[in-house]
Design goal:
- Chain B: InterPro entries: Cytok_DH_C_sf (IPR016170), FAD-bd_oxidored_4_C (IPR004113), FAD-bd_PCMH (IPR016166), FAD-bd_PCMH-like_sf (IPR036318), FAD-bd_PCMH_sub1 (IPR016167), FAD-bd_PCMH_sub2 (IPR016169), FAD-linked_Oxase-like_C (IPR016164), Oxid_FAD_bind_N (IPR006094).
- Chain B: This is FAD-binding protein.
- The structure holds two protein chains of two kinds.
- By secondary structure, chain A is α/β, with parallel strands linked by helices.
- Chain A is about 30% helix and about 25% strand.
- Chain A starts with a helix and ends with a strand.
- Chain B is of the alpha+beta class.
- Chain B folds into three domains: about 100 residues, Uridine Diphospho-n-acetylenolpyruvylglucosamine Reductase, domain 2 (2-Layer Sandwich); about 120 residues, Uridine Diphospho-n-acetylenolpyruvylglucosamine Reductase, domain 3 (2-Layer Sandwich), CATH 3.30.465; about 230 residues, Vanillyl-alcohol Oxidase, Chain A, domain 3, CATH 3.40.462.10.
- Chain B starts with 12 loop residues before the first helix and ends in a 15-residue tail after the last helix.
- The chains are: A alpha/beta, B alpha+beta.
- Chains A and B meet through helix 1, helix 4 and strand 4 of A and helix 2 and helix 4 of B.
């Protein structure tokens, strides 16, 4: 009864549990070693291949991804104001994420990725025509796109459906937000 | 794609800019949001409405009652409609989005002061931005032995917003409006009024005596748009010395009749004092199981798939979650009564303690909710079907077996016609039940979204024809549901609206009420 915050975090941590835990990524250290970050930090949530590829795309576009672990929407409230965050979650996590940002954060872009293609909604200008890249994954291409949108000013909602069959397996939901 | 500036209906761009300038001066620029990315979280709806129908023109975040009064005065001057939200967590009922495009969101989040908690008379006085988790933490830190009654999205939702929408929880204080006591309300003209005993300066009984003197008006400010509630009192349950949560499961759909007939006398006599839930298989499993793992065919989930879920999870077709509270001796006496009542037919499987914890389903999180502790487990239902679509269809029924069986069959037939699943529970009040069905659908699929809309609409129509009304609904269907309660009542609502808010600036369309 007294560990209320811990209890809350435990409950929150149960969300996004569809994402398998795999801590084999070494992209944080890699980013620091490469010294490429020129635009600042982005917290990257998730601990699977998709999030490490997303981080790779962000890093390639001049941002410093900081591993934030499995996504828990409730920790957004504890992040310093102005922090950029990106990552992947599930439907429950997305519902919580967007509701937690009401009045205290900005949604820059949201994505839905499945076997039938990608749907991207941006509040920061037009979305690229394709996430299909011959030399990289769609997650890394998404990272580059999110890197670009993070630098744009707000410009109203833009929807973009990219019908690129077979680019993602199970459905994944991505986000780029500022708290 | 839309980048056009959103304006309140009937308001010129120049007037809106003047109003915004006034609001920035009153609240500070940081508390007036107009940029699209800051407003985007206020546009995320889960109901089957068009996105473009629920976009705010701005959001304002007052920090004090005086600021709310100033907002009301300014919006009255420029005839700007405002839509009030507490913590903005009314997911599936409209979320934090406005009732219609162009309204300014009045977001009460910053008004999050816990003004008083009295451990002797077991009351609290709080502002609308206070969350259940915040109040829970406060009570724990103070060491008070008091319980809250959180709804399912407990930690992040707030007692004021949930009570004003007449929400429910799962402890003996489950009917939230029943345990509300005293309000402070800002009217459309900016005047402030305190209800009940609150009109008397320095009254010590504002949070203990609901009725005050003269007409009782607190109910006018629930599910309505007659004022902006800035403070609310509520009663808190003393923490009992002992607590026993338990589950009773039944194997067959038609067992609902027996469950309700057995439960009703126990509930009315307060042998079982809490807001019991009778949970169908798909809700009990749907918080942690995904549909695609059992069924990928067209239409509603098959009986074979449903039976497989019951088998794998070790749960029933109906799963009754309830609890006993009191001294250990009281609990033992009441437990014998419960066992005898439910044991008569031989169909019920009654469990508590380790046996209940080891089965599948939602015993652990239900046990927490029934003793007023926080969790977010029911958000898992959004993963059941996927696609971000959810609408709560919530008719009221008498606590009679024949009526609940009728409602269940009617819901099943309509949901099946449209290819949706019966993800449902009954929340048992003293004499009535809230039959809550989560119509889950893929909101990314326009055809499925339209089908969900049509299904919800037909549910309202067909239930209404049999005399069943909804206790609450989402903003897309407020007008339609209001229509089912008849024109005489709507005329009274309208008369009150015109008297209290003659320019119609407060949450136009809430519960179907307009000028």
């Amino acid at each position: 009864m007294t560990m209320t915050r811990r209890q809350l975090l435990r409950n929150g941590a149960a969300l996004g549990a569809a994402v398998p835990v795999s801590l084999s990524t070494g992209w944080v250290g890699q980013a620091m070693a490469e010294g490429l970050a020129i635009n600042g930090e982005i917290r990257v949530f998730g601990s699977d291949r998709s999030s490490s590829e997303l981080a790779r795309g962000l890093r390639g576009a001049g941002w410093r991804p900081v591993e934030a672990g499995r996504f828990d929407p409730l920790v957004l409230a504890d992040l310093p104001r102005g922090t950029l965050a990106a990552g992947f979650t599930d439907e429950a996590g997305m519902a919580l994420l967007t509701s937690q940002l009401v009045g205290r954060g900005r949604i820059l872009a949201l994505g839905r990725h499945g076997a039938d293609g990608h749907q991207l909604v941006s509040q920061r200008g037009a979305v690229v025509d394709s996430l299909a890249q011959a030399d990289s994954s769609w997650q890394a291409a998404l990272g580059r796109e999110y890197a670009r949108l993070a630098q744009n000013p707000p410009s109203g909602r833009r929807d973009h459906n990219l019908r690129e069959a077979g680019t993602a397996g199970t459905r994944e939901l991505s986000f780029l937000v500022r708290v | 794609m839309s980048t056009q500036r959103i304006l309140p209906k009937g308001v010129s761009e120049a007037d809106f800019d003047r109003a915004l300038a006034g609001l920035r001066e009153a609240l500070g620029a940081d508390n007036v949001l107009t940029e699209s990315d800051a407003l985007a979280p206020y546009t995320k709806i889960m109901m089957a409405g068009a996105d473009e129908d629920y976009i705010p023109s701005a959001a304002v975040m007052p920090g004090t009652t005086e600021e709310v009064q100033e907002i009301a005065r300014l919006c009255n001057e420029y005839t700007i409609p405002i839509w009030t939200i507490g913590t903005g967590k009314n997911l599936g009922y409209g979320s934090a989005a406005p009732g219609e495009t162009g309204q300014v969101i009045l977001d009460m989040k910053r008004m999050n002061r816990i003004i008083d908690v009295d451990p002797e008379v077991c009351t609290a006085l709080i502002e609308p931005g206070v969350t259940y988790q915040q109040l829970y933490d406060y009570i724990q830190e103070k060491g008070y032995r008091l319980m809250l009654d959180p709804p399912a999205p407990s930690a992040i939702a707030g007692p004021v917003g949930n009570t004003l929408d007449r929400g429910v929880g799962y402890t003996p204080y489950g009917d939230h409006f029943m345990f509300q006591c005293g309000m402070e309300v800002v009217l459309a003209n900016g005047e402030k009024v305190r209800t009940g005993m609150g009109g008397i300066e320095n009254s010590s009984s504002w949070q203990v005596f609901k009725w005050g003197y003269g007409p009782y008006i607190d109910g006018l400010f629930t599910q309505s748009n007659y004022g902006i509630v800035t403070k609310m009192g509520l009663w808190l349950m003393p923490e009992p010395p002992a607590y026993r949560p338990f589950v009773i499961q039944y194997p067959d759909l038609e067992d609902l009749d027996e469950i309700v007939e057995t439960l009703r006398p126990l509930r009315i006599s307060q042998i079982i004092p809490n807001a019991v839930v009778i949970v169908h298989t798909l809700w009990d499993a749907g918080t942690h199981v995904e549909r695609k793992n059992y069924y990928t065919g067209d239409g509603s989930i098959s009986r074979e798939a449903l039976e497989a879920i019951k088998q794998d999870e070790g749960i029933g077709e109906w799963n009754v979650y309830a609890a006993l509270y009191g001294t250990p001796e009281q609990i033992e006496v009441n437990w014998k009564i419960v066992e005898q009542a439910f044991g008569k037919s031989g169909k019920a499987k009654i469990m508590y303690g380790e046996e209940a914890e080891q089965r599948g389903g939602g015993f652990r999180y239900r046990s927490e909710l029934m003793k007023g502790e926080m969790n977010l487990e029911e958000f898992g239902l959004y993963n059941w079907r996927g696609g971000g679509g959810s609408m709560w269809f919530a008719p009221v029924s008498q606590a009679k077996g024949s009526e609940t069986a009728d409602q269940t069959q009617l819901a099943l037939s309509i949901l099946d016609k449209y290819g949706f699943d019966y993800v449902a529970e009954y929340i048992v009040g003293w004499r009535e039940m809230h039959h809550v069905i989560d119509l889950l659908y893929n909101r990314q699929d326009p055809e499925e979204t339209q089908r969900a809309h049509d299904c919800f609409s037909e549910l309202i129509d067909e239930f209404s024809k049999r005399g069943y009304g909804l206790y609450r609904t989402n903003t897309e269907f407020m007008e339609k549901v209001a229509g089912t309660f008849g024109e005489p009542l709507r005329e009274v609502h309208k008369t009150l609206k015109n008297a209290l808010d003659p320019k119609g600036i407060l949450s136009p369309g809430k519960s179907g009420i307009r000028q």
